[in-house]
Amino acid sequence: MEPGETLGIVGESGSGKSMTALSILNLVPEPGKITGGQILFKNRDVVSMTDGELLEYRGSDVAMIFQDPMTSMNPVLRVGFQIEEAMRAHARFDKQQAKDRVVPLLQRVRIPSPKERARDFPHQFSGGMRQRAMIAMGLSNEPSLLIADEPTTALDVTVQAQILELLKDLNRELKTAIILISHNVAVISSLCERVMVMYAGRVVEEGPTRKVFDHPEHPYTWSLLRSVPRVDERRHERLISIQGMPPDLARLPSGCKFHPRCPFKVERCAREEPPLEEVSPGQDARCWVLMSNVTKEAQALKT
Amino acid sequence: MSQPLAVVPTHRDGPLVSLKDVVKHFPTGGGFGRAVVRAVDGVSFDIAHGETLGLVGESGCGKSTLGRVIMQLHPATSGSIKFEDRELTTMRGNELRQARQRMQIIFQDPYASLNPRMTVGDIIAEPLKNFRLGNRREREKKVQQVMKVCGLNPDFANRYPHEFSGGQRQRIGIARALVLTPSLVVCDEPISALDVSIQAQIVNLLEDLQAEFKLTYLFIAHDLSVVRHVSDRVAVMYLGKIVEIATSKDVYDTPLHPYTKVLLSSIPSANAEIEAHRQPILLKGEIPSPINPPSGCRFHTRCPIAQLPICAEVEPPLEMKASGHVAACHFAGKL
After folding, report:
1. Are A189 and B269 a contacting pair at CB < 8 A?
2. Best exposed site among A202, B135, B140, B182 by fewest CB in 10 Å?
3. CA distances in angstroms from A31 to A28, A116, A250, B218, B324, listed in the order given
4. Which residues contact B135 (CB under 8 A, 6 or more apart)?
5. B199 touches chain A (CB under 8 A)
6. Under 8 Å between Cβ of A246 and A198
């Protein structure tokens, strides 16, 4: 990921998108652990960091916000104090600076009358405001990367629109890179330049959002885009339902992990797992078939 | 068995469900001068035989409460609800039980709405037992039949809900609703708890069942794209009031109420072309409390085109603005 970039990770529950994000923070819950590979943040390997280094790295270099802002806050502490605490936990700002930054931060995330609201408790905030306060907390140490895990899933559409606009503005103003995790392809498309589609713990397709959503090459991406009704739908088309269920991660199928549900599979798919390869400039896919090789007639048969 | 699993014709003219000034207030707190939550505050509309009426709105607007009031799971505070030409609100006892045979509800959470200690076969057969329909063998046969129709393997009737995935559990919930061959099915957010790839399966199943058994749906959801997809007509609700009703196409192509317009502009699109031209209208402030809703038009405190004093003082009636298109706004179509 480049500085200031916006990356979307899309996938169903259990596809590994949240675990990918937690790995970046080296926060994979017990008994899970990172067994291979490396995660480089500004050329430092996160996996081999000491506990002390991790404490400084988390929340200061990379911050994360979660789906449910109520469970991410302490209900008995004032919102302003919790934001201040996030800064005091790190060395970037001293005590006075931390105190002084709270109100401007709340203002930055567009909380009205920030001075008064800083003295409120989390339960006095609405869902959207809590998510804003969480974003303020995430940004308090000026991280270079903000990971947002389903930040709008629990919110109403009008509030979701506000939060997405806010993230867009912050990315522009502060040049903070953002990883947005969502199961909603439209939410990803509204914010992210680049998208990664995950299935059964693997990246199955990756590339510029517009390219991937306009010309998906992996049958999973293709089906996913056609299985959600679109608000701009012109006429009533039957939705494509992907047969079967996402696989059990403890008993993965052989070969390509999507082949049992794939309408375009060939014999090789059950035998060998395809590699993630470049399929067009900037776009990678993990598939032996690729949608560009499937005729329009064959596609129509599966709808 | 008194009813076969097939279309039960209702040869009646007029709507299947007709609501007039339906009000549901919940008391809150205690002591003198108790406040009331005005969850549903004067709602009138009809649902025709065989149609799907979508009901959309944000959390707390009263859409689920309205669904439950129609089902008589909550008694209405006032107003009239006619179902198959008979008044539901004054029905009591056995009469109400009989009416309930003809209307069923599918819930949002397929994990919480199935009894974990009952087998799937017993869950689906329970409505038949409650109404003393058929003997054991007939019930078993019907359960098998309805499971097959809903895409469940009838051999799994002896299994327990925890052995099924979310999508399959929702199918069990649908099978339970269909076993009595109802005419009205209230679908309360039937797919919002499911994974994306499973949602399409359930939407397609609901559409197939509607075509096969001539069902009428009240489809309650907050996801406007799904509602557009399944509904013939759409009603938009805000703070206990209906603000707009029209055909699905009209609501989405030419929304007249500013709130509908705001809702539609808020939905991102996966289509880059459309997304690039979308201008979300961002609302100011928070949704007001239904305990003390704003005077006049309830949306005026957040409306981008509200004009004082009229919007704050005069409540706009829900009136016909175009053919088959009703909206409650003094400045309908001006945003």
Report:
1. yes
2. B135
3. 8, 43, 15, 45, 60
4. none
5. yes
6. no
**CB–CB contact A231 B280 (8 Å):** no
User: Which of A129, A158, A227 is the closest to B266 by Cβ?
Assistant: A158
Cα gap B150→A66, rounded to integer Å: 36
Shortest alpha-carbon distance between residue B220 and chain A (Å): 14
Is A157 in contact with B222 (CB distance < 8 Å)?
Answer: yes
Residues 256-275 of B with CB under 8 A from A: 262-272, 274-275
Contact A213 B270 (CB under 8 A): yes
pTM: 0.87
Q: How much is the ipTM here? A: 0.81
**Tokens 């009646």, located at residue:** B12
Q: Are A231 and B261 in contact, with CB atoms under 8 Å apart?
A: no
**Burial status of residue A5 (CB atoms within 10 A of its CB: 0-12, 13-18, 19 or more):** middle
- Concatenate the DSSP letters of all residues of A129-170 into one string: HHHHHHHHHHHTT--SEEEEESTTTTS-HHHHHHHHHHHHHH
B312 touches chain A (CB under 8 A): no
Phi and psi, residue B118, nearest 5°: -110, 145
Contact residues, chain A, for B283 at CB < 8 Å = 158, 162
Residues of A whose CB is below 8 A from B195: 12-13, 183, 246
Over residues A105-125, the pLDDT tens digits come to: 999 898 989 999 999 999 998
Q: At what angle do helices B166-178 and B120-130 cross, to 10 degrees?
A: 20
8 Å CB contact of A227 and B200: yes
Q: What sign does the CA torsion over B251, B254, B258, B264 have?
A: positive
Give pLDDT tens digits for A204-245. 999 999 999 999 999 999 999 988 887 777 667 788 888 888
User: How far apart, in whole angstroms, are the C-alpha atoms of residue A287 and residue B205?
Assistant: 30
Cβ A278 vs Cβ A261: under 8 Å: no
CB neighbourhood size of A240 (10 A): 21
CA distance B191 to A229: 12
**Alpha helices, H only, B150-190:** 166-178
B210 backbone dihedrals φ, ψ, rounded to 5°: -60, -45
Query: Each residue of A159-186: b (16+ CB within 10 Å) or e?
Result: bbbbbbbbbeebbeeeebbbbbbbbbbb
- Per DSSP, the three-state class of B310 is helix
Q: How many CB atoms lie within 10 A of CB A292?
A: 11
Contact at CB, A165 and B195, closer than 8 angstroms: no
